[in-house]
Amino acid sequence: MTADQPSRALPPLSIDAAYACCEAITTEQARNFSYGIRLLAPHKRRALSAVYAFARRVDDIGDSVAPAPARLAGLAQVRTALHRLDEPGEDPVLIALGHAVRGTGLPLSAFDDLIDGCEADVRGTHYQTFEELRHYCYCVASTIGRLSLAVFGTTDLPTARPIADALGVALQLTNILRDIVEDRGNGRIYLPREDLDRFGCTFELDEHGRFTDDETDLVALIEFEAARAEELYQQGLRLLPMLDRRSRACCGAMAGIYHRLLARIMARPWLVLEGRLSLSGWEKAVVAGRSLAGATS
């Protein structure tokens, strides 16, 4: 193009193309949640993919290797973009999310809380009590439950919300137990100080990066937290009958994968001290299949 030729503006990104981008992000990066999302009706699958793609953007900023001030600045920028969804530019995630908000009434305050939780991670916040940890789990996990609930739909939202919140805390507590070694290696301790003190644990590391605490004490702590998570699952899974069939299958698959992982931790709690546990692809597929068939756990 020469200097005297007019420039040609690119056509605006279509809603379908924006959603397709979000679905690709979900399929590639949400290995656990994608098993459930694919069970949804198409319009709900698209909306929940937009939710995940934006949440993933927030998480990626918080978990990046950039210095803390840069990550906090990045989270501030994404918060600003969240509240300017009527000006998405050519950003496919913002275009799709804006469309999903208009179609489902997604509560943007839940995204604000999610960003608050990621900011706490960047600052290296530690938790003294379980109630403090519960609030963090609400920010980074129950918020996604509330957003998902807006997509799923329910006839009794006031009753469903606290149940969904409990399920989110259960999932995040499972994550914390699964990643206990990796998180400590990165300088993060999520379990409450009051619980560490109760079981005589310090979470100090030796020169090889291993816990110096007695394994018996660590296992007792893990068993205690796992039992707490199981109780929260029993509360949270009461959400399933409040959803339509395909939304119930989606939620059941996503929760079921983490619930099965917790069962593995409860059966052999010492294994989390050796590294991150995970389910195989076929195990996740089985959980998703059982959820579609109507199983609740």
Which keywords apply here?
Farnesyl Diphosphate Synthase, mainly alpha, 0% strand, 297 residues, 13 helices, 67% helix, disordered N terminus
Architecture overview:
The chain is mostly helical. It has two domains: 14-124, Farnesyl Diphosphate Synthase, CATH 1.10.600.10; 126-297, Farnesyl Diphosphate Synthase (Orthogonal Bundle). It is built from 13 helices and no strands. The protein has helices at 15-29, 33-37, 42-63, 68-82, 92-104, 108-123, 130-152, 157-178, 180-185, 193-198, 215-236, 245-267, 281-292. The relative contact order is 0.11.
Topology readout:
Layout: H1 15-29, H2 33-37, H3 42-63, H4 68-82, H5 92-104, H6 108-123, H7 130-152, H8 157-178, H9 180-185, H10 193-198, H11 215-236, H12 245-267, H13 281-292
Helix pairs in contact: 1-3, 1-5, 3-4, 3-5, 3-6, 3-7, 4-6, 6-7, 7-8, 8-11, 8-12, 11-12, 12-13
Q: Count of helical segments?
A: 13
Roughly what is the average pLDDT, rounded to an integer?
Answer: 90
Tally of DSSP β-strands:
0
- The number of domains is 2
Briefly note the CATH topology name of the largest domain: Farnesyl Diphosphate Synthase
- The span between the termini is 61 Å
Q: Report helical residue fraction.
A: 55-70%
The SSE order reads HHHHHHHHHHHHH
Strand-residue proportion: under 5%
Instruction: List the uncertain runs.
Output: 1-7
Q: Compute the gyration radius: what is it?
A: 20 Å
Superfamily (CATH H level) name of the largest domain: Farnesyl Diphosphate Synthase
Which CATH top level class of the largest domain fits?
Mainly Alpha
* Class per helix and strand makeup: mainly alpha
